[in-house]
Each structure stands twice: as structure tokens, then as C-alpha cells.
Design a protein that fits this description.
Helix content is 49%, strand content 6%. By secondary structure, it is mainly alpha-helical.
């Protein structure tokens, strides 16, 4: 891709027809930031040449520009055209493609779980659900769609329960590690205090030894007379 054109697929900006305020930016030279760009742009550019390709400023959020409209060093492209509109990428680097995706992306995990439980409480679970499952926990060929959905819900709910148990276990493990770390820090502090006490005692003994040596010298001088 020429350095005169924006490398993002579908973007028509070039240095010859760029609107007012649009600027072009080279790929970063820092390896860590460069890898982030590569991860984001790998499906957004037909061809990407790190030495020549340029990304226009339309693909960067305003927070990545300073007051002089210069691109900051930590800037990454997050805005891309999707179905003639531009959507912001989420924290995972994935651009929501539908309205449902974008709406769900705004909800927290707690809100999603609460909404799912509320929705399930309003639905009636089939009484013979276990009759539609094989021994390998898969649906039988003649399983109705409603029963298949309920079996999926059951599996998801069981998986969520396992995940929550793991979260609790990990939390307890972290608490244990934190307590051990606090004990280690307390031990180190106590050891440091002991070292300071020993240094003080050693200093006092050295002073007493010096005093005794002076007294011995004086007694020796007196006896020699």
C-alpha cells in the first residue's frame, strides 16, 4: 500500500483528497505498541507495510491527540467503518457488528446475569427435559427446539456456577497469599529491627571496649612509675 493512501480497507482518504484536519501517521517503531497495531489492523488492512503504510487520523479517537492535534506516542487506531458507520472497538479489540452486540457490550457481567435470571424465571421449563439427553449429555435427534434451548441454558448455568466457584477459590487463594505476604513483610520488619538493635549493642560494646583499653593504658602507665 502506498504511503499516499490510508492503509485501512475501505477508507478513501489520501494525501491528495484528504479533508481539512485529516493527517496521516506511520506505524510505530516500538515493538510492544507495534504488536498492538498489528493485532488490531490484521483484519482491517488488505496490505500493511510497516515501512511505508500510513493510517489516517480518522481511525484514532480524540483522546489520542494533544492540544496541537499531534498524535500521542501511546495512540492506537480504534475507529473503523462498519456498514457505512463507524463504531468504537471494545476493550477486547473487537468491533460490535450488530445493534444487539453493541447494547450487550454496554452491560456489566452482573447486569447480564441478573437479566438472564429474570428472563428465565418468566419461562416455563419442560418437565421431561432429561428424556431428550443422551448419556454423552448431547441432545437426541428428535429433541424439540425449546428443549434444546433449555438444555443449553442448563449447561451454561452449570458452567457459570463452576466459574463462580473458581472465582471464589481464586479469591481465597489471593487472600491467603496476601496474608503470607503481610507475614513476610512483618518478619522482615522485625528482622530489620533486630539488626538495628544488634548494631546498637555492638556499637555500645565497642565504646566500652575503647574505654577499657584507655583505662588499661592509664593503669599500665601508673604501675610503670
Amino acid at each position: 500500500m502506498s504511503h499516499t493512501h490510508c492503509a485501512v480497507q475501505g477508507c478513501k482518504n489520501t494525501i491528495f483528497n484528504k479533508p481539512i484536519g485529516i493527517s496521516f501517521h506511520a506505524c510505530p517503531t516500538q515493538s510492544d505498541l507495534r504488536n498492538k497495531w498489528l493485532q488490531i489492523l490484521k483484519n482491517k488492512c488488505t496490505v500493511l507495510d510497516w515501512s511505508r503504510s500510513r493510517i489516517c487520523s480518522r481511525h484514532f479517537e480524540n483522546k489520542y491527540f494533544d492540544s496541537q492535534r499531534k498524535l500521542k506516542e501511546n495512540a492506537i487506531p480504534t475507529l473503523f467503518p462498519v456498514s457505512s458507520q463507524v463504531y468504537k472497538q471494545n476493550s477486547d479489540g473487537v468491533t460490535p457488528r450488530t445493534k444487539v452486540d453493541r447494547l450487550l457490550n454496554k452491560l456489566t457481567q452482573a447486569e447480564l446475569m441478573s437479566d438472564i435470571k429474570s428472563s428465565l424465571s418468566k419461562l416455563k421449563e419442560p418437565t421431561n427435559l432429561e428424556n431428550y439427553m443422551n448419556d454423552d449429555y448431547k441432545c437426541k435427534p428428535d429433541t424439540p427446539t425449546e428443549a434444546q434451548l433449555w438444555i443449553l441454558v442448563k449447561k451454561q448455568d452449570h458452567l457459570n456456577t463452576r466459574l463462580m466457584e473458581l472465582v471464589v477459590q481464586n479469591k481465597q487463594y489471593v487472600e491467603v497469599l496476601q496474608k503470607k505476604l503481610e507475614n513476610v513483610k512483618a518478619s522482615q520488619k522485625e528482622m530489620q529491627q533486630n539488626v538495628e538493635n544488634y548494631n546498637y549493642i555492638s556499637k555500645c560494646l565497642q565504646e566500652k571496649l575503647a574505654t577499657l583499653e584507655e583505662q588499661i593504658e592509664i593503669l599500665t602507665a601508673v604501675e610503670s612509675r
